[in-house]
C-alpha cells in the first residue's frame, strides 16, 4: 500500500481535512513550513515524505514503520546521467533524491525560461538574490506577479540591502565601478515596490544586510539556484535547477536557507 493510499484511508477514517493534517503535524514538529498542498501531493504520490513521517504517523494514528516501508518502496533508485547539454542527475540511496539539472553558467538559461518558471507558480513564488535586476526590468514580470497574486499565490522578493557596506567589495571583486551594485539594487527595489502596490498583501518585499551566498527563484516545487561564487559575475556562475521529489532533500535544504534569510530580513519601504 502506498503512502498516498494510507493518507487517504486514514483521513477518511478520522474525518480529517488536508489542512487539519498539516496543522496538527506542524504543531507536533514545532514548525510552520507545511501546507495542505504538501499533504495533497503526498496523498497523490507526487512527492514522498521523509522528514515528516513520524508526525504524519502520529496524526494518522498508524505505525511509523508502516509509513516508512511504504515510502521506501516509492523511492525508485536512478543512475545519474549526463549529456552534451545541461547535466542532469538524481540520487539513489542518498538523502538528496530531487531532480537536478546543472548549468555551467546562469546565462545559459534563456529569459523565456526564467519567466516561464515563475509564471507556473500557483502556491509559492520567491525571487531572492542581490538585485534580481533582470526580473525587475522585464516588462512581463509585473503582469506575471499580478496574475499570481490574484490567484492566491504568496510572493516573496528578498534583495540585498543597498546600504550594506559589502556591496563595494562585490563591485571590486567583479570588476565593476564602485557603487554599481547598490545602484542596481536601488533601481530593482523601486520597480518591485511598484509591483507590490499592484499585487497587494500577496506580495512582500524585504532586504537583507549580510554577505550574499546564493540566488533562488522558486515556483512551488521548482527551484533555480545560483550559488554566489566570488570573483564571478552572477551571469557566469554555475546554476542548478531543482525539482522536489521527497522530504529532506536538496530542495528542502535551500528552502530552509531562504526561510532563515527571510526571517532575519527587514521590510523595504520607500
What would you note in describing this structure?
By secondary structure, this protein is of the alpha+beta class. The protein has helices at residues 3-14, 18-29, 36-43, 53-60, 64-74, 111-119, 133-137, 141-150, 167-174, 180-199, 250-264; strands at 87-89, 99-103, 124-128, 154-160, 203-208, 214-219, 222-227, 239-243, 266-267. Strands 1-2-8-7-6-3-4-5-9 form a nine-stranded mixed beta sheet, sandwiched between helices. Helix 2 (18-29) packs across helix 3. The radius of gyration is 20 Å and the shape is elongated. Mean pLDDT is 87; it is low at 77-85 and 90-96.
Mean pLDDT: 87
Rg on CA atoms, Å:
20 Å
- Calculate the terminal CA-CA distance, rounded to whole Å: 55 Å
Order of helices and strands: HHHHHEEHEHHEHHEEEEHE
How many beta strands in the DSSP annotation? 9
Shape: elongated
Brief sketch in words of this structure:
Helix content is 44%, strand content 17%.
Strand and helix layout:
Layout: H1 3-14, H2 18-29, H3 36-43, H4 53-60, H5 64-74, E1 87-89, E2 99-103, H6 111-119, E3 124-128, H7 133-137, H8 141-150, E4 154-160, H9 167-174, H10 180-199, E5 203-208, E6 214-219, E7 222-227, E8 239-243, H11 250-264, E9 266-267
Parallel strand pairs: 3-4, 4-5
Antiparallel strand pairs: 1-2, 2-8, 3-6, 5-9, 6-7, 7-8
Descriptive tags:
single chain; 270 residues; alpha+beta; 9-stranded mixed sheet; 11 helices; 9 strands; 44% helix; elongated
